[in-house]
Write a structure and sequence with these properties.
Layout: H1 2-21, H2 31-58, H3 66-87, H4 103-122, H5 136-157, E1 165-166, E2 170-171, H6 173-200, H7 203-221, H8 231-311, H9 317-349, E3 356-358, H10 359-373, E4 378-384, E5 392-394, H11 399-413, E6 418-430, E7 434-443, H12 450-453, H13 466-469, H14 474-484, E8 488-495, E9 498-510
Helix pairs in contact: 1-7, 2-3, 2-8, 3-4, 3-5, 4-5, 4-6, 6-7, 7-8, 8-9, 9-14, 10-11, 11-14
Length: 513
């Protein structure tokens, strides 16, 4: 807001001192000198106007914006009309076969009124969306038709239009009246952009309001000149030059540089948040290391004494039963800490990549271990896997635990001495992700109820499931580890709809050559 006030004060002082100290009407420049300066100033105006149109039109597709579109297309019209103004200016080479002394002034008023109306109308348009009923191509067509019609009207009927200036006498009343209409429109636009700037704090609107303030004094200068080559005329064009310099900063420079500035700001914010997240993760891992180490040390004597009491035949039966429960819970907590450590290790390994693993070898080792662990049970393990050769995936050191846990659960929970397990491995291809191995391990045990399956999924740590999960099992953590590898683990009924007929664990893992 201070920028607008400074512009208003400085421009008012310059204009007032000029009126008081110098009679600019008596200062008339040589035609050649004036035309050179006039042409340079007008070419600057035209270049800025065309640049605004080019940038605003080019950037309207990714970011629909009615205000930018309207301003851009309006400046396209302003640029074309300004070209006609300085080409037909008195003393310039003949551009049209016949035109009156008022022709360049007609073009001038046309350009200034278009400029004032466009910026005033744009203040009412949204800067964050576009209207469907005014598509961009139609907007450009309408402005083009308006511009060509107005140019042809002036070019063909300039001598029949009201005179704007009378040589030797000065400006006509209608010309001065039109200038004051343009001033009124610009003053209204200044008020609107002032309010928008105060509300949003955006520099673009401050610059636009300041440019319009300069435009007002430009038009005031053009109500005072007597000759098209006198100093008041030049003063008006100098005000116009500074006004369009502000417009360049507001509309062209902001359109080109602001997106890059926002990108840099977003990049800096992302980098800052990434650094904060990495620091927080490192702290969390450090705390987890300390916590898991201390919990293990605390649990060791608890489980030791619990085991001693539960096996002490002299202790009362009830005390031994309680001690066994303490021992069981201690072992469960120790298992939880171990699984948590394994998961954090997998998280740390993910960025560097997991080591390759042969599924065929992992299955063989898991079968060997489960047979040793349960010597009193008879195992019937059927395999349906591809022919000879390794079945290579990733996750060495982790997937073996998953397979071993599934085999162990099947053996532990199968009723009687008979343990039946079916293992199937097949190659699958996921669209845009490449080849995978799908391994299905099915048992014929008592199965897992549906309400318990939810605690074994990869989203086991979802806050909504906090009350349902209790202490996550090893499979819960393993499902998260598999997800870290880019795979998936699902636990379903072997017979759909009947969990009592056994469980099926489906592992989908990235294939490696």
């Amino acid at each position: 807001m201070s920028l607008i006030l400074i512009t208003l004060v400085v421009t008012s002082i310059v204009f007032s001192l000029t009126l008081v100290l110098v009679n600019l009407r008596t200062v008339v420049f040589p035609t050649t000198t004036f035309l050179v300066v006039h042409t340079i100033l007008e070419v600057f105006t035209v270049c800025v106007s065309f640049s605004i149109f080019a940038v605003r039109w080019s950037s309207m597709r990714p970011i629909p914006d009615s205000q930018s579109l309207f301003i851009g297309v309006a400046f396209f019209s302003v640029a074309i009309i300004h070209v006609l103004h300085f080409l037909t200016y008195s003393g310039m080479p003949v551009f049209l076969e016949s035109y009156s002394v008022s022709t360049p002034v007609h073009y001038w008023m046309l350009a200034r009124l278009t400029f004032a109306v466009a910026l005033l109308a744009a203040a009412f348009l949204p800067s964050d969306r576009t209207y469907r009923w005014v598509p961009p191509p139609l907007t450009l067509v309408l402005f083009t038709v308006y511009t060509l019609s107005a140019i042809l009207l002036v070019a063909l009927y300039s001598s029949e239009l009201p005179a704007m200036i009378v040589p030797g006498e000065g400006l006509t009343a209608i010309k001065i009246g039109l200038e004051y209409v343009a001033i009124a429109l610009m003053a209204a636009a200044v008020c609107l952009y002032w309010r928008i700037a105060a509300r949003t704090g955006e520099l673009m609107y401050f610059l636009l309001a300041s440019a319009l303030v300069l435009g007002i004094f430009e038009e005031l200068s053009f109500t005072l000149y007597k000759s098209v080559f006198d100093a008041f005329n030049l003063l008006g064009h100098l005000f116009g030059f500074v006004s369009f310099l502000f417009i360049y900063l507001a509309l062209f420079r902001s359109s080109v540089r602001r997106p890059y500035e926002k990108l840099q700001e977003a990049k800096g914010e992302v980098e800052s948040r990434t650094k904060e997240a990495e620091t927080a993760k490192l702290k969390a891992q450090t705390y987890l290391d300390f916590l898991s180490h201390d919990i293990t040390n605390i649990l060791s004597p608890i489980t030791l004494y619990g085991e001693l009491i539960s096996k002490n035949e002299k202790a009362p039966p009830e005390v031994r039963r309680y001690a066994a429960k303490i021992l069981s819970q201690g072992e469960l907590t120790a298992s939880f800490v171990t699984n948590l450590r394994r998961f954090t290790q997998a998280e740390r390994s993910a960025p560097a990549g997991f080591k390759p693993l042969d599924l065929r070898k992992a299955l063989s080792e898991a079968e060997s271990e489960v047979r040793k662990r349960y010597p009193g049970k008879r195992f019937d393990i059927a395999y349906a896997v591809p022919g000879a050769g390794p079945i290579t995936t990733i996750g060495a050191g982790y997937i073996e635990d998953v397979v071993d846990e599934v085999f162990d659960n099947a053996a532990k929970h199968s009723p009687g001495h008979e343990v039946r397990i079916e293992v199937g491995v097949e190659s699958v291809v996921k669209a845009e992700e490449g080849p995978y191995w799908r391994m299905v391990i099915s048992d014929h045990g008592p199965g897992i109820p549906d309400e318990a399956k939810v605690t074994l999924s990869s989203d086991v740590f979802d806050p909504e499931k906090r009350l349902a999960r209790g202490i996550a099992s090893k499979l819960s953590f393993m499902s998260l580890v598999v997800e870290q590898m880019g795979g998936e683990m699902r636990i379903v009924d072997r017979v759909r709809g009947d969990h009592t007929k056994g469980t099926k664990v489906v592992l989908t893992l990235p294939a490696r050559v």
